[in-house]
Write a structure and sequence with these properties.
Largest sheet: 7 strands, mixed
Strand content: 15-25%
Shape: globular
Number of helices: 13
Oligomer: single chain
Number of strands: 18
Structural class: alpha/beta
Distance between the termini: 24 Å
Helix content: 25-40%
CATH architecture: 3-Layer(bba) Sandwich
Length: 397
């Protein structure tokens, strides 16, 4: 083992992507230091859907039992027309997903997934430091010196930027434009199923599609809570990087316009909402957008994507698995290993980003396009909704 390989790897960011990278790299034998700028580990947001391509990795990391204790495992995915309430198509999950893809389809609260990964990173011996931010770095003869909030720079073998859609690591590495506002606003909420009328409780994933809008809801926390996301078109808020805690059902219903009584009942049963303006980037165009030299990007720092394929967290976890594989194989220099990671990941991430954009266009379609969508769903629902290229593929374990 060469001298630079004995230096730790540094991860910037303690969200889902950063903690996943910490778990995977520590399992691969790399000492890990993770810097999180917040004074405590926490995760805002609501729910996360995880297809078999993701749960398969968590199981391989030994986290299957921990996942089973906090997640829900819906039996089906259903699509409905937001205006008429009509069921358009269904996709069986549950035993079918397990049989076809070797792992379950899970839905989980973001905080539960974050906590699961945090405990795993701690268990793998990762050095997790709060209240510290990566300020910059310079190359040395055998690694990087990374400036942070400590008096002395950290000497590391590599820097992994996992600092989210507004990544400072990315800006220093690539110097590109900030992420773009999509024109879409996501209203998010969580409600205890016990607080809902019986006919509004559910154990499945439901997607309501309408003109310039869609709503998704599914169970989390062992099915005891319901996660709801409503996406509408709207203007960019004054401060797009912050949650707007003043959002409420009245504002949301005005933005939704005319929707069917069935959907309206569900939305009006929830009083507290958070508003999040959705930002993304164009699909990744080359491996150089994910790694250069001794610096690599994972998750939203590398490929922020729209939530219409439910794979934002999933692609971050896939990134972590491939990054660890390329590191753990032990062939080549640090630069070569990070380059191998980027070579393997950029095209798949670009494909998922592009498909998420396309899904949003389909979900929010109007007029004849919406009529064609509904007819196709009724005729070929399960065939259209299943995604073997996504769920059945992914990193080797």
């Amino acid at each position: 083992m060469t001298r630079h390989e004995r230096k730790p790897g540094l991860i910037a960011g303690g969200g889902i992507g950063g903690l996943a990278a910490a778990v995977a790299l520590a399992r691969a034998g790399l000492p890990v230091v993770l810097l999180e700028r917040s004074p405590q580990f926490s995760e805002v947001g609501a729910g996360v859907q995880m297809g078999p391509n993701v749960t398969r990795i968590l199981q391989a990391w030994g986290l299957g039992d921990a996942l089973a204790r906090v997640a829900a495992f819906p039996k089906q995915l259903q699509t409905r027309d937001a205006q008429t309430g009509r069921v358009l198509g269904t996709l069986s999950l549950g035993e079918r997903a397990q049989a076809l893809y070797g792992a379950p389809y899970a839905t989980i609260h973001r905080a539960d997934l974050h906590g699961l990964l945090l405990r795993a990173a701690q268990g793998e011996g990762a050095d997790l430091r709060l209240g510290q931010t990566v300020r910059g770095w310079r190359e040395t003869a055998d690694g990087l010196e990374v400036c942070n909030d400590s008096p002395q720079p950290l000497g590391v073998s590599a820097l992994i930027g996992a600092d989210g859609v507004w990544s400072a690591t990315r800006q220093k590495l690539l110097g590109d434009e900030p992420p773009s506002f999509t024109g879409h606003l996501a209203y998010r909420s969580m409600v205890a199923q016990a607080d809902l009328p019986g006919h509004l409780r559910t154990d499945q994933v439901t997607v309501w599609m309408g003109p310039r809008l869609h709503v998704v809801h599914y169970p989390v926390r062992r099915g005891e809570w319901l996660n709801v996301i409503a996406v509408v078109h709207g203007e960019k808020p004054a401060n797009p990087q912050n949650w707007d805690h003043t959002a409420n059902a009245h504002i949301l219903m005005q933005a939704m316009g005319a929707v069917g009584a069935d959907l309206r009942q569900r939305l009006e049963a929830i009083s507290d909402w958070r508003l999040w303006p959705l930002h993304d980037r164009a699909p990744v165009r080359a491996a150089s957008e994910m790694a250069q030299g001794r610096v690599a990007l994972v998750g939203d720092a590398a490929h922020p994507m729209r939530p219409y394929l439910a794979q934002g967290a999933g692609m971050a976890i896939e990134d972590a698995q491939v990054l660890a594989q390329c590191w753990g194989q032990g062939a080549g220099s640090v630069v070569q290993r990070l380059q191998a990671y980027a070579d393997q990941r950029w095209a798949r991430n670009a494909q998922v980003q592009a498909r998420a954009i396309r899904n949003g266009q389909i979900f929010h379609a109007q007029g004849l396009v919406a009529m064609g969508r509904n007819l196709s769903m009724r005729l070929m629902g399960q065939r259209l909704m299943d995604l073997p290229w996504l769920y059945g593929q992914g990193p080797a374990l």
